[in-house]
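Hi everyone, sorry if this is the wrong subforum. Our group has a chain we'd like a structural model of before ordering constructs, and none of us has done structure prediction before. Sequence below.
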Amino acid sequence: MLLATRNLKYFNYDQLTWPEVADLPRDTPLILPFGSNYDLERLAEQVNHPPRIGLLPAFPFGWRGSGLEVPEAIIGAYIDNLINSLRDDGFTRVYALTPQDTIRLPNPKFQITQFNQSQKQSAPPLPLESERGKVILMPIGHTEQHGLHLPLSVDTIIIEAIAKGTASAAPSRAETLPAMPYGVSTHRPAFAGTMNAGGRAFEDFWLAVIDALAVRGFDRFYLMSGHGGNTSFLVNVVKYAGERHRRIFCATAFLHTSGTIGAAAIEKYRTSKIGGMGHAGELETSYMLHLRPDLCYMERVVDETDFVATPSYYMDWIEGGSLIANPPWDDDTKTGAYGAGSHATAEKGRLWLEAAIEEKAAHVEEIHEQHERREARRKTGYGLWSKTK
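Answer:
Right subforum, don't worry. Here is the predicted structure as tokens:
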């Protein structure tokens, strides 16, 4: 969607495909806003009225006044990595747009501040205090390339839909935070448009979010990822959080649509062979045809399944084999896709979304059961709990 302001055109960066990002003039201003409700006329003035300005997905929370605050150094490192990933791609005018008097980033030359309309009154706590006792869903997507036919926003769109669907399916049992559109991509240099929060900064940020919520009395958390590159780092967050906060239950899972319910649905409806669902393939393309068909360019689809596969290492949505590795993406794909997007349909996307929501709702119930049974055991003085308060 283009937003016109006089003779200036704003465009949504995450709605582009990677070849479109590759073709952008490298002096195009790219703006990463904290929240929304900024004066775009004033923004144009602040960057000297260029012909076009790219708006990146809004960073949803973490700063003073957002309703959910983490230490400034932690969010600053996260944002610094995101900005530098774009500058590594050659973009020379990348800025964070922040509300005044809320945060000072590590590199002030990358920061633009404005009075934000949402600053007129303090944002309510995120989540509301009345949501204590529910599982707090933390959907985390990413902004990265998805072949020639899909936009950079795929992972965020899908995991946001799953999280909202789960919260709607179990309103008394789960509440979702806004989706985070930035994760970790260690393969970032291969194709234009892919951002990277950095593994350590990513872990520090999400652990700080759990810290902040645990202090407020929340005790059940589900870190839900729409992007495979986040997975190993979220496992670390869960381990750190579980040791730091011994009376919470914090969990994650390997992607969505990958547990017993999701795997069965994939097997039932897929038409591509193994290798057809690695990335921007049959599964993700089907989700997008169901959720955002306006952002799909099916005439551009290129099926790529020529992954260098061996019995213990191959690429599909539910990856197989005992080997874990991270070779360059350009070894196995010419277009950024791993899979067979041509097999996708909107109907498959609808069916897989239903399965994913059912699966996540079942996980929510397991998290409640785990927390409640463990608390009951602790209260009896089980084992070493008899020696602690």
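For your construct planning: The radius of gyration is 21 Å. The longest strand covers residues 94-99.
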